[in-house]
Inverse folding.
């Protein structure tokens, strides 16, 4: 029988190991709930109420499945997904994938910068003054600090997602209906428009950039193979937690705006519209959550593009390197946000209007990313004994087929949307 002191020592070592590994899975999953994600959940819940909650359980399963594959692939190969695509499929394919990723990511960055702007307006702050100030501080922070410090900042931001839990509780939702809606499909809502919105919800949760980011971030963190199982646990935990927060965002809107037949175009409208029904403080909390979500997305999504560029084209790029060693990496990070800032500050510009369309496109390209993940995670020459099992392959293939069919049906809904 193990002595108490030895048992405690063993447990403490395990906790230290878990703390050393934790980060990529949780951060990637929570970053999926960026300002673009909050807007998508808000708009979808305002349109369909609790009826959109049915998407969350399958989305959580697919998110956990694909992120685990990404984490395992990165830890075993110590390479990013972009590295592997360039190495095995050549420069032409790499360039094509990068262009698609860049365009989709830039649409998401626009939404995140717009989310920060909208939250500032919600609190009565002039975005022309405060938005460039916040962006400038982000630049200084990312360029002047190292990986570990940046990761701690990400965790601080994640804590603020609890504001959505408080907003949902204050909205006094129908908890029985909300929980039933997770497993019981809504009546008379499965039409092309509903499918279009569902694919947008999927595309904002399981993102193309998220697949690239977790590879690159794990490579940057240099997690060793012997810690693989801890990273796998963290990825699944992240998938579950992020969609729990998605659940609270959606029911806060469903319990207030949907039941009162109020339609919105963005998350800021949701924060303002919630106030008369759930109270002033609930709206403030919702707006604060939007600000934090925008900040997290405004860092991670452009970082993903910078990581992918470095890997696709063989340049140095790491958060542990200073600006002199990773000039192109940091320059691309800065250029993306500056371009988004310029567009967002144009008069009468509301980029949340493209929320569903942008995230629908994100969902459409997921099967392509799944194809590469499937190919690499089944390649014994790089994965050795860590290839996918039969169940993982079956679920990934089914997910790709279902998303492809849904994207086609949803496209019809997008064209006829009025």
């Amino acid at each position: 029988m193990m002595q108490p002191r030895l048992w405690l020592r063993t447990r403490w070592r395990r906790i230290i190991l878990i703390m050393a590994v934790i980060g990529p899975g949780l951060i990637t999953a929570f970053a999926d709930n960026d300002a673009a994600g909050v807007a998508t959940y808000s708009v979808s819940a305002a349109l369909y109420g609790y009826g959109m909650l049915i998407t969350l359980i399958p989305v959580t399963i697919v998110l956990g499945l694909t992120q685990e594959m990404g984490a395992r692939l990165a830890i075993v190969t110590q390479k990013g997904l972009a590295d592997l695509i360039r190495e095995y499929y050549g420069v032409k394919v790499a360039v094509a994938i990068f262009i698609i990723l860049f365009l989709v990511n830039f649409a998401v960055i626009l939404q995140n910068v717009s989310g920060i702007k909208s939250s500032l307006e919600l609190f009565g702050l002039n975005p022309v003054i405060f938005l460039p100030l916040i962006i400038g501080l982000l630049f200084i922070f990312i360029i002047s600090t190292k990986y570990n410090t940046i990761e701690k900042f990400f965790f601080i931001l994640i804590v603020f997602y609890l504001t959505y839990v408080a907003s949902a509780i204050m909205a006094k939702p129908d908890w029985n209906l909300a929980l039933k809606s997770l497993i019981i499909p809504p009546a008379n809502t499965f039409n092309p428009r509903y499918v279009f919105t569902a694919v947008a919800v999927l595309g904002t949760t399981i993102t193309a950039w998220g697949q690239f980011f977790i590879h690159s971030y794990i490579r940057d963190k240099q997690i060793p193979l012997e810690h693989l199982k801890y990273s796998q646990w963290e990825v699944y935990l992240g998938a579950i937690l992020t969609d729990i927060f998605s659940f609270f965002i959606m029911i806060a809107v469903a319990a207030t705006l949907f039941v009162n037949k109020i339609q919105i175009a963005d998350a800021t409208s949701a924060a303002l519209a919630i106030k008369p029904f759930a109270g002033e403080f609930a709206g403030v909390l919702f707006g604060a959550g939007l600000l934090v979500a925008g900040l997290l997305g405004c860092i991670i999504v452009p970082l993903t593009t910078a990581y992918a560029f470095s890997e696709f084209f063989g340049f140095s790029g790491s958060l542990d390197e200073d600006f002199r060693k990773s000039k192109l990496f940091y320059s691309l990070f800065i250029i993306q946000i500056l371009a988004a800032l310029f567009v967002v500050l144009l008069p009468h510009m509301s980029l949340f209007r493209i929320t569903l369309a942008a995230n629908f496109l994100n969902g459409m390209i997921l099967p392509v990313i799944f194809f590469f993940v499937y190919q690499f995670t089944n390649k014994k020459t790089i994965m050795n004994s860590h290839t996918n099992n039969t169940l993982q392959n079956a679920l990934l293939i089914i997910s790709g087929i279902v998303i492809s069919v849904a994207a086609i049906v949803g496209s019809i809904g997008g064209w006829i949307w009025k």
Notes: The CA atoms of residues 275 and 281 lie 7 Å apart. Residues 15-20 have pLDDT under 50 and may be disordered.
